Amino acid sequence: MKKAGLLLASVALIPVLLSAPAYARDPYGYRPSSTILVTPEGDILGYTPEQNEVVISRDRMGRRVLFDHYGNLIATEVPAESYFPRGAQQRDYPETAYDNYPPQPRGWNDDQVVTGTIPDANAIDRQPLDEPAQDMPYGGPDMAPPTEQATPRTVTPEIPVKSNLSQLEITALQTFLDREGISPGVIDGKMGQNVNKALVAYQQMTGETLDPNNAEDILERLRLSGGLAITSYTITPGDAAGPYVASIPEDYSHKAQLPALSFTSTTEMLAEKFHMDEAYLKALNPGVDFTIPGTIIKVVEPGKLKQGEVAKIVADKGLKQVFAYAADGSLIAAYPASIGSADTPSPSGTVTVERIAFNPGYTYNPKINFQQGANDKVLAIPPGPNGPVGTVWMALSRPTYGIHGTPEPSKIGRTQSHGCIRLTNWDATELAKMTKPGVTVEFID
Predict the structure, then answer these.
(1) Per residue in 338-353, pLDDT tens?
(2) Is 4 exposed, middle or buried (CB count within 10 Å of its CB: 0-12, 13-18, 19+)?
(3) Which residues are catalytic?
(4) pLDDT digits (tens, 9 = 90+) for 194-220
(5) Which residues form the L,D-TPase catalytic domain (predicted)?
(6) How far apart are CA 248 and CA 255, in angstroms?
(7) Which of 210, 120, 100 is nearest to 165 (CA)?
(8) H-type alpha helices, 278-361
(9) Which helix (H) or strand (E) covers residue 78, if one does?
């Protein structure tokens, strides 16, 4: 629950912060106002939130930050000069023109997307969590982290990185990070918060600072790690054959009637195979028919799975990131994640991995999980990459909670789950193959 002082402070700040639009027009060329609102992905917020839609606080740098009522960061108020270099013209930043950002449709919030949990073999009601849910990061209005934590927290850059790299150069950066075991999520040629977090985690793992704007350095590192980011791939008869399903129904009772929750197309399968955003795969191969065997296409070469033996997993709820550590405390891998929500938060404290299943089925039980549509009966949903838990399920010692994959990899790190830890299917697979039952999983608020 928010404290009364925070509510009063928020009410007092809202008229001041929202008195100007997120991007102020200037009659002489769309120059920004003295401050702008920047999203976690590094873009200018394209609409002005209404007073009843946000909670306003301040971060440790004294800047105002906007949260929705689930505790998700909407935007940070930053000096315009830090986003637009001095003397830059609007032509240098065409993507930031105000007209390119229509108002967000009322009622839509990408962070409201949720995934399910899988019940334990012996179905029991979900146990209460150790601590009450907090609807602000770190559980306090001053945004300060707890004074004592068992595991040091990794800090995301305060100001999102605004890269001057081309799309292919950003692809090279994402591919290099992915090969190093520091996942940027889907590779899509775009800078965003998942890339920012990966850059910080890479520094934690190696002690080196990777400059995202030094294209030559990134390309050289990429060459040494296995070659250029983009490679050629020939579509095989097996790729074209599938099996595929026509579509994935939303209703769980309809899902339960399918033989498998397979991929819906060759492009969806290939995008997941090469850790790519499906739309980006199509953009790299304009006009290509992916259903014809023998067709040569351009894909990302993500490299081999990271090797190692994980002794401890840390799930950072605030960062929406998972860290895998070796027995000596060194960082093996890091992954963007969707972790819990205000209504169904993840556990607090430390649990353990109890069992690991690849290509798992999913048992939906409305009395244990959540209410999906009008379904009020237990349903056995078949396995597949488009299943509710994707291709991997790592059951935790807290019943009904686990680490799992997802049918929507592009939303990882931007959405919430029903209390579980959700990764892309390929990240969940990599982590699962380095983990054994008994490994501890620590949740950091």
Answers:
(1) 986 544 455 678 999 9
(2) exposed
(3) 404, 420
(4) 999 999 999 999 999 999 889 999 999
(5) 311-444
(6) 7
(7) 210
(8) 278-284
(9) strand 73-79
